[in-house]
Amino acid sequence: MATEVLQMKTDFQEHHSFEMTSSVQRTSQTTKIVGEEVVSSESSSVVESFSMVSHSFEIPQGESIPEFLEKPQPLSAPLGDKAVFRAKIQGNPKPSVTWKRESGIPIKEGSKMFFDSINKEYVLKLESITSDDADNYKCIVSNPHADIIYTVSLHIAEGQEKMDFKKMLKKRAAPAPKKKAKRVVDEKEMLEILSKVPKKDFEKVCMEYGFTDFRGLLKKLKEMKKKVDVEAIRILKPLEDVSVKVDTTAIFDTILELKDPNTKMIWLKGDEPLRIQYSLGKYDTKQMGTKYMLHITNVNESDVGTYSVLIGDKKLSAQLKVIDEPLKFLADLQPLKITERQTAVFEIRLSKKVPNFTWKFNGKELKRDDKYEIISSEDGLTHTLKIKDARPSDMGEISAEAGELVTKTELVIQRTPIKFVRNLKNVRVKEKSKACLDCELTAKDVTLKWMKNGRVIERSTKYTMTHEGKMAELIIDDTEQNDSGDYMVVATQDKDPTEYYSSCNVIVDERFATVKSGMSDVQAPTGDPAELCVVLNDEKVEGVWLKDGVEITDMRGIQIVKQGAVHKLIINKMGEQFEGKYTFRAKGAESEATISIADPPVIDPSVLEAFAAHPVTVKAKQTAYIKVPFKAKPLPKVTWFKDGIEVTEEEKIVMERTNDHALLTIKDCVREDSGSIMLKLKSDCGTAFAQLHLNVVDIPKPPQGKVEFLEKTGKCVKMKWKAPKDNGGKQVTHFIIERRMAGKKSWIKIGEIESKHTTFATDKVEEGKAYQFRILAVNSEGLSEPLETEEIFAGDPIDPPGQASQPQVSDVTKEAVTITWSPPAQDGGSPIMGYIVERRKKGSNLWVPVSKELVQGTKHKVDGLLEDTEYEFRVIAVNRAGPGHPSSASSSVVARDPIKPPGLVKGLHVTDSSNSSISLAWQQPDEGDPPSGYILEMRAEDTKEWSKCTKIPISGSSYTVGGLQERQKYFFRIRAVNEAGVGEPIELKEGVLAMPPPAPPKFDLTARLKSHMVVRAGTALCIHASFTGSPPPNVVWQKDGIPTRGRESITKGKNHSQFLIHSTKRFDTGLYRIVLSNDYGEASYDIHVRVADFPRPATNLNLYEEVPNTVSLTWDHSPDIKEDGSAHYIILKRDTSTATWFTAAEKVYSNKYTVTGLLPGRKYFFRVIAHNDIGDSDPLDSRDSWHINKDKELFNVHIKEYHERDWRHAPHFITPLKNHAVRRGHDCTMSCAFLGNPRPVVTLYKNNVNITASSKFWYNSTSGVCTVMIPACTAKDSGDYSILIENELGQEKCNCTLTVYDKDDKSLLDSVTDSLQKSKHIM
Residue 1290 — very low, low, confident or very high, per pLDDT cuts 50/70/90? Predict the structure, then answer.
């Protein structure tokens, strides 16, 4: 009899655990016939049950719940033997295995629980079992996703031992209700009944039938056995007919009692004996006590017939019938979908055994090997195919073939998702250095491609890509600024369309260098090598060479060498094409030098011979060009000499020099320019000379000396002279003699004479008249200048008149001046014919007559003058003998209308002052003519004498008086002045102190005075403040509104003050204020100082349970957590069975946290640690352990319906975003905290544009905390940022503003400082 009971229950609890229980119970009864007694064994119960508790709704890819590969089997073992339970399991994460008894009694000492590493089995081994070990045993397999429990029974089979009635009475339960006693006819019938029951039940059976003589019956029963023993062979159970299926095993059995155990037994089929030992396992005989059996394996149609056993003189026979069922698959193969690297298991069962069953993959037969494990059950009906370490190449059609029957299915293998064990990290390097991007993946056989800014990077000398095993690396050699950008590595694998990627940001900072040793100018002869060298302070900085501002591309004849930080430019053979200005230019460094040819100057010898043979001849008043060609590099210094004296360049002499000649130009040549000319060419490489003669041809010089009159009469005048000293370079041909009468301007030629004569006589004169003669020499070029004689009289002379008096100015206008004078005292013997009036400009030597005619009288108005021009006048008397001596010059006078002196200066006031100077300004007077300047005077307070501030009048309308004594009072006055005179003075009403102008105190925020400071305990706190104010303000430092005293050191100056605490402590935290005050105002500035130390621990830790299998922790905040926005808590847990603490949560900002993932039946301690940038606080531990209740076993009881609480709610922010201000080039981190169930979806926006997927922004959202990080902020990153959280119940949004400012942005710095004084958050 067999009975199966299947029970399954599902309970969905608040903590979302899932439990499934199934149990199978089989009950059997066997009957043994021993001799003439029929003994009924006790009823045994075989128990197998399975249950599972799930902890996870969603199981991550690649992980799984535990499962049994081979389940423990129920056991039945005799007393004193051993019992061994075995189980094979799998699961990810690796499960843990424990063994327990269902009754709760501990497994007895001496039992072994271990893992068999060879067979990969978990084993429970019980030695020397007793009846107390009979129980149901549980195998409990657990991992974070589920717990599975398989329960099996252990039955102890008892032997035929002597009854202990007392022991039985102890174990017996309460007596059952008395049944009516059965009465039998006689004692013989009673003995027959007792022979069929176990010995231990004899007493019970006797009582049921009303027999009280229990001992007498036992005695008679033994006598009956003795009588039976007399027979040699006793058949207790004959052979019975057997019907079996094909390919199964047929068993014939009989129970015999043999007097002689060596009695021969023969098995026959029909009349033929069975040759058992030669049947190759087809036939087999077995004996179990008095039971004799014949096993026929793999039964087929040929095995049908009559089988007999001969023993002694007895023969027992029975028929074998074979039932042949049609071959079929009891179930078709089902499609299987597994993950890569797992084992694919296919199992199929046949209706009967076949000899030619095969497994095929894509039509190809599979053989057993390391890859494929092919298993057949003992009965040959169940066939299993295991494909180990499944790979994508194993995907395809799996078929099972048994004869002509075929069943097929598909094997689908999902690729294991690629994960990045270590992601790419952001890299920041300098130019020309190496950038290394590396990552680690979970798989080896992947295809990688690297991308930059969305474009695939091709392999080149610049990019080195390596992929060894699970490691991937990209090396960027000689980085440049354009290598900055977003880099990504994309991993793909065969038969997986998904692309897996990891990205990072590379920033290449510009590399600057400085010149350690610069270049110097180089000169080299033509054909020789030349070299320029510059040394930088950085070997990795490249540079470029430029010639005359243009980069050098033509490298013919040039070598450019870089040896570390040394950069060289080498010219193999110097030539004109290499001359110029060379520049080496690198980032942050530049050096310049000039390369030139150094050849000595050379003049062609043929040119020198020509100059020596033929002088340079030029006519007077023409231009002489003296050109001397030469060759030289560099160009030499050109010096010209005339008659040994160096020639300097002036208006008529021009000296020029070109690349190949020197040119001396003499304009308007005169006779004196003739002479020896020498050219000197000189350079650092040598000197060259050229000699020549210049001959200027001109008219002759005048005859020499004073003319000697040999005769002066009224009838003849005879004169004598000397020949000219210089004939002008040409022969004098003759002399010309001219005369004129005194007072006349025209000359009359009176004769010529050959050059060999130097005397001349003329009779063309009149008695008493005055005459003047002149002699002119003549050559081929023309007439010389005349040699004039003095006036002579032909006969007795008449003297010119005397000198008139000094002219006096009587009236002046801008156009005319009236002068008067007195006639001379002597008229020379002839009446005054008139006067010559002359004028000249002041400072000039040229006198100009004011009229063509003689002026009559002694008064004359001179007109036609230029306004604002200064003039002088003189008068010359004239008689028949001619003009007399001029008078002395009149006083100078300016031709302009009369002017007035200036009036009073207006608006004298002070514009600025310092400790040593005072600045004044004024306006010009309204009255009088405009002033030409101002006279500024001053006096100190302790003196009455005025002193001029300047030696000459001040031309402008402002002036700064320097060199004053600090804080001394000075008085000032000023007067305007012009040509008409000096105006009246005007005095400043009050004295002025030499000190800066009064000003209230003001802080200098450009000195980066911070409004928030965070210092570590034990380090120095230094606050430096710069300010202005006049007079210098008084400085007072306060802490929390009270003047500081004691621990600090304060340094004060006129424009600064410093507050210093050498070693800070936590109580130094507070609001520090610096107060400035003087007579003109007061100013203050607040600095929030926080002294950061290891945080103080939290207090008052409480534990309670809100959700089953979880623990909620609450505690009182650490005082330091509220003050530090970045501080948080770390939650740890510890199983009481271990000393190791495990992290339950890393960043908790509130004072409450619910710990999940706890195992039922365990006890835990909990710990809370406060953490900030300095470190961890002392731990706060729970006083007592917390016990996680075990899930109760399910019973068929009626309980009230549980109404699950709705924990859902709309999302909302508990800590919103805050405004940030970040300096350009720095990183910015923004964070916020929120709650919501279901977990909200987070979306990032910048200026209302979705940036969630942008690689520029690093974003992370974990445990209700969203963090956004912007690396290396630029001006483009400024703007409004917002975070939107939403779920099915609602949404909420928070905003903030990011401002990115430059280092010297003072206006923004002021606004940021003002805003920061109102907020405690600062980046």
Answer: very high
Neighbouring C-alpha atoms within 13 Å toward the C-beta of 16 = 9
DSSP designation for 1066: G
DSSP-based three-state secondary structure for 446: coil
Average pLDDT, the chain: 83
Where does residue 133 rank: exposed (0-12), middle (13-18), buried (19+ CB within 10 A)? buried
Region 917-926 average pLDDT? 90
Per residue in 820-843, pLDDT tens?
Answer: 999 998 887 778 889 999 999 888
How many CB atoms are closer than 10 A to CB 688? 19
> What does the alpha-carbon distance between residue 1074 and residue 1085 come to, in Å, rounded to a whole number?
5
Quote the CA–CA distance of 481 and 483 in Å, as a whole number.
5
Under 8 Å between Cβ of 415 and 394:
no
pLDDT for residue 1038 is more than 80: yes
Find all residues with CB under 8 Å of 138, minimum gap 6, and list them: 99, 100, 101, 102, 149, 150, 151
| Residue 288 pLDDT level (bands cut at 50, 70, 90) | confident
Task: Give CA 331 to chain center in angstroms.
Answer: 63
Cβ proximity of 434 and 420 under 8 Å: no
Q: Give the 3-state secondary structure percentages of the chain, helix then strand then coil, rounded to 5.
A: 5, 50, 45
> Is the distance from CB of 36 to CB of 1 less than 8 angstroms?
no
d(CA 810, CA 859): 10
pLDDT above 50 for 932: yes
**SS3 letters across 558-625:** EEEEEECCEEEEEECCCCHHHCEEEEEEECCEEEEEEEEECEEEECCHHHHHHHHHCCEEEECCCCEE
Tokens representing 507 are: 């920033």
CA 1091 – CA 1072 distance, rounded (Å): 12
Pairing of β 661-666 and β 653-657:
antiparallel
What is the gyration radius of the CA atoms in the chain, in angstroms? 67
* Cβ 144 vs Cβ 57: under 8 Å: no
> Is residue 907 scored above 50 in pLDDT?
yes
For tokens 């043929």, the residue is 606
- Residue 997: is its pLDDT beyond 70? yes
Beta carbons within 10 angstroms of residue 223's beta carbon = 9
Q: Are the CB atoms for 717 and 794 separated by under 8 Å?
A: yes
- pLDDT for the residue 980: 77
- For the entire predicted model, the pTM comes to 0.30
HSE at residue 706, side-chain half, CA atoms within 13 A, is: 5
DSSP secondary structure letter of residue 462: S
| pLDDT tens digit sequence for 886-896 | 999 888 888 88
Separate counts of helices (H) and strands (E) for the chain: 7, 109
Say which residues have a Cβ less than 8 Å from residue 1019's Cβ, sequence separation at least 6: 1063, 1064
Cis link prior to 634 (omega < 30° from 0)?
yes
Q: Is 591 exposed, middle or buried, given 0-12, 13-18 or 19+ CB atoms closer than 10 A?
A: buried
Six token digits for residue 807: 């002219």
Which residues are within 8 A (CB) of 670 and not within 5 positions of it... i.e. 6 or more apart? 620, 621, 696, 698
Residue 20 pLDDT level (bands cut at 50, 70, 90): very low
- What crossing angle do the helices spanning 187-194 and 214-228 adopt, rounded to 10°? 70
Mean pLDDT confidence for 727-750: 86
CB 1023 within 8 A of CB 1052: no
Which residues sit opposite 1089 in a β-bridge? 1013, 1070
Map residue 1290 onto helix, strand or coil.
strand
The per-residue b/e assignment along 425-456, b for 16 or more CB within 10 angstroms, e otherwise, is ebbebbbbeebebbbebebeebeeebbbeeee
- The mean pLDDT value for 1038-1043 works out to 86
